[in-house]
Amino acid sequence: MRRLLWPGFAGLVSAALGVSTGQLVATVINQQSGPLYAVGAMVVDATPARVKEFAVRTAGTYDKPLLLLGIGGAVALVAAVLGIVAARRRWVGPTGFAALGGLGVVAALTRPGASGLDVIPALVSTIVAGAVLVGMLRAAPPTGSVGRTGVLNRRAFLGGVAIVVTTAGAAAGSQILGGAAARTRDRVRLPRPARPAPALPAGLAPGFVTPNADFYRVDTALSVPRVDADRWTLSVGGMVDKPFALSFDDLLRQPMVEEYVTLNCVSNEVGGPYVGTAKWLGVPLAALLRRAGVHAGADQIVARSVDGMTIGTPTATVLDTGTTPGTQQALLCVGMNGEPLPLEHGFPVRMLTPGVYGYAGSGKWITHIELSTFDAFDAYWVRRGYAARAPVKTASRIDRPGPFARLAAGPVTVAGVAWAQGRGIAAVEVQVDDGAWEPATLLPEPNLDTWIQWTHRWQARPGQHSLRVRAVDGSGTGQPGERANPFPDGATGWHTVAVTVA
User: Fold this and answer.
1) Using one digit for the tens of pLDDT, what is the confidence trace for 299-326?
2) Coil, helix or strand for 307?
3) Does the residue 267 lie in any domain?
4) CA separation, residue 10 to residues 18, 82, 260 (Å)
5) How many helical (H) and strand (E) elements, i.e. helices and strands, does the chain have?
6) Confidence of residue 408 (pLDDT cuts 50, 70, 90)
7) Based on the structure, what is the number of domains in the chain?
8) Is 378 in the same domain as 413?
9) pLDDT confidence tier of residue 138, bands split at 50, 70 and 90
10) Same domain, yes or no, for 329 and 451?
C-alpha cells in the first residue's frame, strides 16, 4: 500500500497544477474556456431538462459549486489512478492526461462563439500535468523508503506548496479580471430617466421591492461573466433593414425609462423563491427595434449573451409591452434598484421582458440581438424541451406564517404575494383546512406587471392546520389548483402551508 502513496499523490499534484495553470491562462484568454468551466458547461448542456429542474429545486444556488466540485473530484480520482499505473508504465500518465486534455479541448470548442484560442488553456493543462507527473515519478523515493521520516512528507509539503501557489495565482488572475469589470461598474453614472417610475403607492408592506443582494439568480454560467463596459458593444441585426451597433456610452445616451417589474423563473415551484420585484432602469427595446426596421415575418428576437446563452422572445410581445394601460415596456436594462446592474445580474446590460418567464425574455450579459423566426432557430432552453412562448401563469404564495410554523392560538395574520403579469390580480382567497374560501385583503398594486401583496386575518384554534391560497387574475380567470411541475412552461397549483397552533 505504501508503494502506491507516492505515485497516487504525484497524480493528484500533477492534475491540480495542470488544472490550476489552465484556469490561470483562461483568465487572460476567455474565462469560460478554463478546463473546469468548459467541461462543466458541456455537462450542463448535456443534462436533461428534468435533471436540471431537480438540481435547481434540490440544491438551489449551490448547484453550480456542487457540479464543479463533482467534476474536480472525478478528475482527482482519475489522476490518482493514472499516477499509480504510470509508476509501472510511464507512458500511461501523459497519455491519460492527454485524453483528459482532449476532453477539455472538445468542451472549449463546442462553446458558442468559441475561437481557436479557447483551446489553449486545456492544452496548457495537459502539458503541465503530464510534465509534472513524469518529473515526480522520476524523483520517487527509493523502494522501501516511502515510510521513512521526512522523505514523503518533505516532497508532499513541496507539492502542496506548489498546488497552493498555482491555485492562488489562478484565483488572483480571476480576481484581477473580475476587478476590471467591477471597476468599470463602479465608474458608471446612471443617467436620469426621461420617464421616472411613479412613486410606490402608500400602504405597501415591507419587502415589496427585493434588494439586489436577495434577488434570485438562476442561469447556466458556472462563473459570473466579467464584462468590461468600456469594451462592450451591442449589435442589432438579422431580419432588419438597418443593422447597427451601440457602445455602452451610446446606450446610456438613449432616453431611459424606469419601471417596477416582477421577474420570475420558469424553474420556480409552487410557492418557490425564484421570483422578485425590482426598480429597473433601461432603454425601451421596442424603440431600438423600430430604429432597425424589423422585417415582416420576423417573429422571434434572439438575444445572445457573452457566455453563449441564447434567449428567444416573441417579437410581438416586445412591441406590445407597455401599450396596454398599467403594463410596462421591455427594456435593455442598465440599472437595478437605483444602481448599475450587479455583475451576477447581467452587468453591463441585460434584457427584461414583462409578462414572460426569464428564460424567454430576460437574457443577461447580452451582446447581440438578432431578429429571426421561431421556425428558423430554437433558443437554448427550447432545444431542451421548454415552450418557445412562455407567458407567466397566475400564481400566489403564502410568505407568513412559514411552513411548519408553531403559532399561538388567537388572531394570526396570513400574508403573501400574488402575480399575473400583464393581467393583474383581481382577488386572492385563503382556505383553512377544508373550510370555505375567504377573501384576502389586497394591498395597493403599482402596476399590472408587479406582484401584489395580500393579507388575511385568521382566528387560529389549537391543532394542526393547512393554509391554502389561490388568486384570480384581472381577466377573471382563476388560478389552476391542479399541480404541475415547472417543465415545460411553468408550475401551477395552490400553495399550501402546514402549521401547528398551540
Assistant:
1) 999 999 998 899 999 999 999 988 999 9
2) coil
3) yes
4) 12, 9, 56
5) 10, 19
6) very high
7) 3
8) no
9) confident
10) no
The DSSP output letter for 375 is T
Structural domain boundaries enclosing 334: 212-384
Element containing residue 78 per DSSP (H, E): helix 63-86
What are 164-205's pLDDT values in tens digits?
455 555 545 554 554 566 778 989 999 999 999 999 999 999
DSSP at 62 = G
- Segment 194-252, tens digit of pLDDT: 999 999 999 999 999 999 999 999 988 888 888 999 999 999 999 999 999 999 999 99
In a domain, 205, yes or no: no
pLDDT at 148 over 50: no
Q: How many residues are recorded in the chain? A: 502
13 with 97, same domain: the answer is yes
From CA 493, how far away is CA 79, in angstroms rounded?
48
Strand, helix or coil for residue 185: helix
Pair (308, 442) in one structural domain: no
**Interatomic CA distance for residues 63 and 27, integer angstroms:** 23
Angle at Cα 271 formed by Cα 266 and Cα 277, nearest 5°?
Answer: 65
* Joined grid coordinates for residue 394: 397566475
Nearest by Cα to 312 from 383, 215, 213? 383
Q: Report the alpha-carbon distance of residue 126 to residue 93 in Å, rounded.
A: 11
In this structure, the answer to whether residues 401 and 366 fall within a common structural domain is no
d(CA 33, CA 115): 10
By the 8 A CB rule, do 346 and 333 touch? yes
The cell 393547512 sits on which residue?
466
- Return the C-alpha cell found at 43: 455537462
The CATH number of residue 282's host domain is: 3.90.420.10
Helix, strand and coil content of the chain, in percent to the nearest 5, comes to 40, 25, 40
Rounded Cα–Cα distance for residues 241 and 319 (Å):
17
Residue 201 falls inside a structural domain: no
* Cα–Cα dist 175/16, whole Å: 19
Alpha-carbon span 457 to 476, nearest angstrom: 24
Give start and end residues of each alpha helix (H) in 139-277.
151-187, 248-252
Could you tell me which of 353, 237, 358, 364 has the C-alpha nearest to residue 298? 237
Q: Residue 405: pLDDT band by 50, 70, 90 thresholds?
A: very high
Residue 97 CB-density burial (10 A; 0-12 exposed, 13-18 middle, 19+ buried): buried
Q: Are residues 109 and 67 in the same domain?
A: yes
Q: What was the pLDDT predicted at 358?
A: 95
pTM summary value: 0.83
| 35 and 131 in a common domain | yes
Contact 449, 424 (CB under 8 A): no
